[in-house]
Design a protein that fits this description.
The chain is an alpha/beta fold. 39% of the residues lie in helices and 16% in strands. It folds into two domains: 163 residues, 3-Layer(aba) Sandwich (Rossmann fold), CATH 3.40.50.1100; 83 residues, Rossmann fold (3-Layer(aba) Sandwich), CATH 3.40.50.
Length: 297
């Protein structure tokens, strides 16, 4: 992308060390990989995953999938506005059709995204060829380039490999919040030997490992890099929080003057603090936390 391209990113994203007694007293260094500063509208891993897909689309309209609070839908809508590309968002939840839009979907609509609501059962089967074809036909998006839910496919995973390369030599462990797992799949592939990646799923279910391995096999031909998941910090599932998580996020914001996005980043940071308290990291370990997003206004 050229310097005049509206999607031109700030790369590599900044790496910021913070002092936090929850880590200091365990002999750990904590670094924040500020991917939230890559681009003002395509935040963090959304840019890393969307940019290669937009390149593959070669000017075609974009269609993608997400829930009512999907950051991915918002990023795709913003990219469409910036590039002058038509976008369609297939939204999970037929019951939402005709209701006032929540702030996330309202932003998508303001950016020009056409919203098409489908029932949850159909949404679960969207990967099946016949179901997908019917959905795209009903949405008027048969000829559009399909970006998968969360933006995670082989192109996106290869795009996220640069994140691991940027962190090479700076940390022993790097943690990232996981929705569909594409960022972790690419990140782990880009890390040098001796560094490992830790994924903190924000959905409950314990199903993500197989999906991440499948993404790596699609992108690289095999499972790649040293990576693992800790499923304990989803706080009830996607888009769910608790007073405990909110208190933690507010405290982290006050300590480090960093706005903490609640659906992904807060859960990952909480998980790291808990793991540090459990003695999961050896003294002298440098831990990097990837800040994949920031709170949307």
């Amino acid at each position: 992308m050229t310097s005049t391209d509206p999607l031109t990113p700030r790369l590599p994203s900044p790496l910021q060390e913070v002092r936090d007694d929850r880590f200091d007293r365990r002999g750990l260094r904590l670094l924040l990989k500020r991917d939230d500063l890559i681009h003002p509208e395509l935040i963090g891993n959304k840019w890393r995953k969307l940019a290669p897909n937009i390149e593959a689309a070669r000017g075609r309209a974009l269609v993608t999938f997400g829930g009512a609070y999907s950051n991915h839908l918002r990023a795709t809508a913003a990219a469409g506005r910036l590039l002058g590309l038509p976008t369609t968002g297939v939204v999970r939840g037929q019951e939402l059709a005709g209701r006032p839009l929540n702030p996330s979907l309202a932003r998508c609509a303001a950016d020009g995204m056409r919203l098409h609501f489908i029932d949850r059962s159909t949404y679960r089967h969207k990967h099946e060829p016949e179901t997908r074809a019917a959905v795209l036909r009903a949405a008027g998006a048969e000829d559009a380039y399909v970006v998968p839910e969360g933006g995670s496919n082989a192109a996106a995973v290869r795009g996220c490999r640069a994140l691991g390369a940027e962190l090479g030599g700076h940390c022993d462990v790097v943690a990232v919040a996981c929705g569909t797992g594409g960022t972790l799949a690419g990140l782990a592939a880009g890390l040098p030997p001796g560094s490992r990646a830790l994924g903190v799923p924000v959905l409950k279910g314990g199903f993500l490992a197989a999906g991440i391995q499948a993404l790596q096999e699609s992108a690289f031909g095999a499972r790649t890099g040293d990576w693992s998941l800790d499923d304990r910090f989803h706080f009830g599932g996607y888009a769910r929080t608790t007073p405990e998580l909110d208190a933690f996020a507010q405290d982290f914001e006050q300590r480090h003057s960093l706005p903490v996005e609640r659906l992904y980043v807060a859960k990952m940071l909480y998980g790291l603090a808990a793991l540090a308290g459990e003695g999961a990291f050896a003294r002298g370990t440098t831990v990097a936390a990837v800040v994949t997003g920031r709170p949307f206004p």
